[in-house]
Amino acid sequence: MGDYFQTIVDLDATAADAAELGDRALDWLIREGIVEAEPTDCVLGAPTGHEPGEAWEKAVLDPDWEPLDGLNIETGRTVFLGGQGDGQYAICPRCATRTHFFTEAWDPIEGASTPFDEAIETWQATGAAQVKCPSCVQASDLTTWQWANNYYTFGYLGFEFWNWPPFTPDFLADFTRTLNNHRTILVYGKL
Ligand SMILES: [Zn+2]
């Protein structure tokens, strides 16, 4: 089976406001009964998280699928991972060409990911990075590239729900309102 996660990433949160927004969104989730207030050992990758609350059914499409684990809130500069395996390609924001990192047989294409790996390292260190597209030879902000299956998302605030069923569109819309209607992206993945 493995562990399955859904992460709601706030694309507009900044280093300065991520913690405050995260607290506000958590307060709303607690008030709605979707998660418990008291932190416990219930998530992967962090010492504590928030377990499903008494009204978790309100948030999900399938109320027969009980969530197993909790919510971890990541604040601060984070590369959020999605999908399974590896990022197959990235799409240039200027010319929409896909830069592939693997062959169809999933063999790595030598050197293809190097500029992207370097840009991700730079972004982690500084919060800003550019990548030059091999096709149109123009540089773009790393965070404006799209990845296959949203494999990478770059941001400062993310809500990782571990082993929860898929969320309803209404829940996601209400949740986004607590984040000042920021742009959000929902990333799925499996460990
Ligand atoms: Zn391009």
Sheet having the most strands: 4 strands, antiparallel
Shape: globular
Distance between the termini: 9 Å
Uncertain stretches of 5 or more adjacent residues:
none
Bound molecules: zinc ion
Query: Approximately how much beta-strand content do the residues carry?
Result: 25-35%
Helix/strand/pairing category: alpha+beta
Number of domains: 2
What is the chain-wise order of helices and strands? Answer: EHEEEHEEEEHE
Q: Determine the mean pLDDT.
A: 95
Radius of gyration: 18 Å
Strands of the biggest beta sheet: in what spatial order?
Answer: 2-8-1-9
Helix content: 10-25%
Q: What is the secondary structure topology, with strand pairs?
A:
Layout: E1 4-10, H1 18-31, E2 71-81, E3 89-91, E4 98-100, H2 114-126, E5 130-132, E6 139-141, E7 146-147, E8 152-162, H3 169-178, E9 184-190
The structure holds zinc ion (ZN).
Describe the structure.
- With 191 residues, the chain is α+β, with helices and mostly antiparallel strands.
- It folds into two domains: 4-82 and 151-190, no CATH class; 89-146, no CATH class.
- It has three helices and nine strands.
- Strand 5 and strand 6 (139-141) form a beta hairpin.
- The longest helix is centred in the N-terminal third of the chain and has 14 residues, at 18-31.
- The chain is globular and about 50 Å long.
- The N and C termini lie close together (9 Å).
- The relative contact order is 0.29.
- The model has no long low-confidence stretch (mean pLDDT 95).
- Bound molecules: zinc ion (ZN).
- The site of zinc ion has 8 residues, from loops.
